[in-house]
Write a structure and sequence with these properties.
- The complex is a heterodimer of chains A (681) and B (102).
- Chain A has 681 residues and is mostly helical.
- Chain A is 72% helix and 4% strand.
- Chain A contains 30 helices and 4 strands.
- In chain A, the strands form 2 sheets. Chain A has a two-stranded antiparallel ribbon. A two-stranded antiparallel ribbon of chain A has the order 3-4.
- In chain A, helix 14 packs antiparallel against helix 18.
- With 102 residues, chain B is mainly alpha-helical.
- In chain B, helix 1 runs antiparallel to helix 2 and helix 2 packs antiparallel against helix 3.
- The chains are: A mainly alpha (681), B mainly alpha (102).
- At the A-B interface, helix 30 of A face helix 1 of B.
């Protein structure tokens, strides 16, 4: 019965068909477009989950993977085989992606209602789903990269979906260019990998021989010298992940991406696309972990940990409901990256899955709030708890999951990361990356709980702080997906309960998730101290949030208590001035360089040279013209003039008088007669 | 009997008068008359040679009759042309009829 897995080839196909049909034929019919998009992702979801639930019980597939080749490209170095596959990581992703996509597709019908480009929206998100699904089932880096770029394109199109707004247009451009920087670096990594190993297929890269070969091979780098090749490849590939998953220093595009419609924010910039970067690192993890003492792991750990803390602090001082969530997303992605950096492969993947569910929930919840309240500014909201009960309760579920309160999903995954980092730090001592990671992630957990509490209290408690607020609950097509996602946000964590945990551990299959994904890695032992600390931090954060925002809800016109932090608040509110820094030190020099080159081109060298060549050409043609006019024309005209002159002379004989002609004739006859008579014969 | 040469001299004189008339007259009628003189000069020659050289054959006489018939026909056609030209161009002066030269 391996035939079922062969169907994995069709997974990205259905949304793509929906995309093509909507774009080509049914743009005018909004209802039909919606149902087409739903059908595309719905079929894929059913197919995906059928495969997932079979694979979970199939040890062979989980350990070895099942490959479904599609076609191969002959190259100078043999065949480049492209295909799809099902393995442990794909199974985990395939559980999350189609379902979250489906929920968001359904929700979009309500949120995008009445938009002039409604059908196009569904076409774009269908194409996006194609990209993400194709990415997770690709069995080689090249195909993965293709789908990766498809998503990049969709991201650009969807962030700038309301392109009438200049800010949206700019945000789309910013996202596209920023991620492109990462993509180029990633492509370099791919090229290096291919040139060293001659293959891009995962199963070949991760075979014993290839890994061993990579371990032995070195490469010479300018400035650095001769180093092992594996960390170089790993760091380059990580560049792509940094761009896509919005890690420092390429994180700046994600908050701006909130200009797009909220379902897009949920779909792309929270649940799926941004996790593609984490997925890439997880997928290529054997290469990262090949030489754990080299830069590959520490770079990942440092970037992840730093981003997690940086973004969490920025989230404290944002007023836009979606921007808080955007920075929270960056921060959580930092958790996953940092987890991979300390070797917590299973924990990172687990957090990736749970985070996708509760972050999609939070984003869709915020979209529902925006839809109902008509504003994105939390300072104008307040008191929405009674008017939007379903949104409120589902949002709280998401908030508790994100904050890491047991037994919600986020608690189990986040705790596993912290526990693993702690374990590593115990092994390696205080002067090590795991210690840094554990420290910043614990601090981040506190901040996460606090900013989420701030968000919930500002949005749902107290009284509205704006007069023109007439909030109402969103339609069912929007609330049902919230409820479905909330169920997962509450219960999904149980699939990854540590094995030793009393009652729950045995009840939920002895850490089922670890059995699915992490067969080759030992499970992180349960650590009550770390778990207790993380619960304590989460509750402290929530309590502080209540103390500041919940006990005395803000009144209209009252400033945010955060402003009491003074310059720190200003710094956080302005996102550490990173955007300004970039615009001053990167964008502006780039523009200046471009201007310089433009000048070089336009007024200094290239254009004058071209003009000079043009002028010489004109001069030469002038010469030709003169030659033509005087010599060639002269000959032609001369011939004509000579002919005309002869004509003129001969014309005189043609008097038109018959008598003249007759006279000539008679004289001629007389002449001939005379000659006849007098000339000797 | 008058010798043959007298007739020939008369014929040559008549021919020359006719040629002169054809070449010098500006009036088309005059030219036509010159042509008639030339033809008649020929006729004198024909008759004279017949009478003095081959009186037994009728060839010369018949030729002369032919020439007269042709002269009559020519005069008719020539006059008709001249009248037609006069009607359209209001002139019988040949120098003025130079349409083909333009």
């Amino acid at each position: 019965m391996t035939e079922l897995y062969d169907w994995v080839r069709l997974i990205p196909l259905f949304p793509f068909l929906a995309f093509a049909i909507i774009l080509l034929f049914t743009q005018r019919n909004q209802k039909l477009s919606t149902y087409l998009a739903w059908a595309g992702i719905g079929i894929t979801w059913l197919l995906g989950w059928t495969i997932v639930f079979r694979a979970i019980g199939d040890k062979h597939v989980l350990e070895e993977g099942f490959r479904a080749p599609i076609f191969s490209i002959p190259t100078g170095r043999g065949l480049l085989e492209l295909g799809f596959q099902v393995d442990a990581l794909t199974t985990a992703m395939l559980f999350m992606v189609p379902f979250v996509c489906l929920m968001i597709f359904i929700y979009s019908k309500g949120y995008m209602h009445g938009d002039p480009r409604y059908s196009r929206f569904f076409a774009y998100i269908s194409l996006f789903a194609t990209g993400m699904l194709g990415l997770i089932v690709s069995d080689n880096l090249l195909l993965l990269y293709i789908f990766w770029e498809v998503m990049g394109l969709c991201s650009y199109l969807l962030i700038g979906f309301w392109y009438e707004k200049p800010s949206a247009m700019k945000a789309g451009l910013k996202a596209f260019i920023t991620t492109r920087i990462g993509d180029v670096i990633m492509f370099l990594g791919m090229l290096l990998l291919y040139s060293v190993t001659g293959t891009l297929s995962f199963h070949e890269i991760f075979s014993e021989e290839t890994l061993h070969f990579l371990k032995e091979t070195t490469v010479w780098l300018p400035l650095v010298g001769t180093v092992s090749v594996a960390p170089v490849i790993a760091v380059l590939l990580f560049g792509g992940a940094v761009g896509k998953s919005a890690q420092f220093p390429l994180h700046v595009w994600l908050p701006d991406a909130m200009e797009g419609p909220t379902p897009v924010s949920a779909l792309i910039h929270a649940a799926t696309m941004v996790s593609a970067g984490v997925y890439l690192v997880a997928r290529m993890f054997p290469i990262f972990a090949l030489l754990p003492e080299t830069a590959s792991m520490s770079v990942v750990a440092f970037i992840g940990g730093f981003t997690a803390l940086l973004a969490a602090t920025i989230a404290l001082a944002q007023d836009d409901i979606k921007r808080v969530l955007a920075y929270s997303t960056i921060s959580q992605l930092g958790y996953m990256i940092a987890a991979l950096g300390v070797g917590a492969y299973v924990a990172a993947t687990f957090h990736l899955i749970t985070h996708a569910f509760f972050k999609a929930l939070l984003f869709l919840g915020s979209g529902s709030v925006i839809h109902g309240a008509g504003t994105q500014d939390m300072m104008e909201m307040g008191g929405l708890r009674k008017k939007m009960p379903i949104t409120f309760w589902t949002f709280v579920a998401g908030m508790l999951a994100l904050a890491g309160v047991p037994p919600f999903a986020g608690f189990w995954s986040k705790d596993e990361i912290l526990a693993h980092a702690f374990e590593e730090f115990m092994h390696k001592g205080v002067m090590s990356w795991p210690f840094f990671v554990w420290l910043v992630l614990s601090l981040g957990a506190l901040l996460t709980a606090f900013y989420m509490a701030r968000q919930v209290f500002l949005t749902f408690y107290g009284e509205p702080r704006s007069h023109h607020m007439h909030a109402h609950e969103s339609p069912k097509v929007m609330t049902y997906p919230l409820i479905a996602l909330a169920v997962f946000a509450v219960f999904l964590g149980f699939v990854g309960v540590p094995e030793e945990f009393p009652v729950l551990g045995p009840l939920f299959g002895h850490n089922l998730f670890h059995h699915i994904v992490g067969h080759q890695y030992p499970a992180t032992p349960l650590n009550w101290g770390v778990m207790g600390l993380s619960v304590l931090l989460a509750l402290t954060g929530l309590f502080l949030g209540w103390l500041v925002y919940g006990r005395n809800p803000l009144k209209e016109g009252q400033p945010d208590p955060m402003t009491k932090l003074g310059p720190v608040y200003t710094l956080l509110r302005n996102k550490y001035y990173i955007d300004e820094f970039y615009s001053k030190f990167i964008v502006r020099p780039a523009v200046a360089l471009a201007t310089l080159l433009f000048r070089f081109d336009n007024s200094w060298v290239i254009d004058p040279f071209v003009n000079l060549v043009g002028k010489i050409g004109v001069w030469l043609s002038d010469l030709g013209r003169i030659f033509d006019l005087n010599i060639i024309d002269g000959i032609v005209n001369g011939v004509a003039a000579v002919t005309a002159w002869f004509g003129k002379i001969l014309r005189l004989t043609q008097t038109g008088k018959a008598q003249n002609y007759l006279l000539v004739a008679i004289l001629t006859v007389l002449l001939l007669l005379g000659l006849y008579l007098y000339l000797p014969m | 009997m008058v010798p043959l040469s007298w007739f020939l001299v008369l014929g040559a004189a008549l021919f020359c008068i006719g040629v002169y008339g054809v070449l010098s007259r500006r009036n088309a009628i005059g030219i036509l008359m010159g042509v008639e003189l030339i033809l008649n000069a020929v006729n004198i020659n024909l008759i004279a040679f017949w009478r003095y050289r081959t009186p037994d054959h009728l060839t010369g006489l018949v030729f002369a009759v032919f020439v007269m018939a042709i002269a009559a026909a020519e005069a008719a056609v020539g006059l008709a042309l001249i009248i037609a030209i006069y009607r359209t161009r209001n002139t019988v002066i040949v120098e003025d009829v130079d349409l083909l030269k333009m």
